[in-house]
């Protein structure tokens, strides 16, 4: 069976590759098209169906396998314009891309001792998660979490090692006069903080 591997290609390339390969096979012969992109897969299914190929699909380990049969006649007007099948999703915020914001040294409101335990537990738990934030931003009293002698410094350092960018508000550090005590993260300004918040898929406030 002839195989067309479209993995790594974006629309309209997979459609064009499938169309060109279909021209090479004999009437009634089966062909296999492989894709690793859900949008491309959906577009391929629509395109091949309209060509009369009766595609049958199967998904395995994140890849899509489409078996199509060369029809007796191919709709030439559809075959000549595969770009028309490129149904590309509009820009939608990626909710897997998120930012964590620590506004204080405690988590939640109420008892400060309990809040301190909670926020320490949060960062300990966070470092073991698969979906890590892109950034951890600290401002106001939250900057104290980045101090060398804080209970959270070690967890934050581990998160940095995993690729998470830790940003500490420079204005806040100066206000509390603790610049020399900061042991983790990068001291930054409010413009950069505002930019990262605006770019985030969503923001988790502690």
Provide a concise account of the structure shown.
This protein is of the alpha/beta class and 206 residues long. It is built from seven helices and nine strands. It is elongated, with a radius of gyration of 26 Å.
Describe the model.
The protein has helices at residues 13-24, 38-50, 76-79, 112-126, 153-161, 170-176, 190-199, and strands spanning 2-5, 30-35, 56-60, 63-69, 98-102, 135-138, 165-169, 186-188, 202-205. The radius of gyration is 26 Å and the shape is elongated. The protein has a 5-stranded parallel beta sheet with strand order 8-7-6-5-9. Strands 1-2-4-3 form a 4-stranded mixed beta sheet, with helices on one face. The mean pLDDT is 86. Helix 5 links the parallel strand 6 (135-138) and strand 7. 31% of the residues are buried. Helices cover 34% and strands 21% of the residues. Helix 1 packs across helix 2 (38-50). It is of the alpha/beta class.
Write a concise keyword list for the protein shown above.
206 residues; alpha/beta; five-stranded parallel β-sheet; 7 helices; elongated
Form type: elongated
Low-confidence stretches: none
The residue fraction in helices comes out at: 25-40%
- How do the helices and strands follow one another from N- to C-terminus? EHEHEEHEHEHEHEHE
DSSP helix count?
Answer: 7
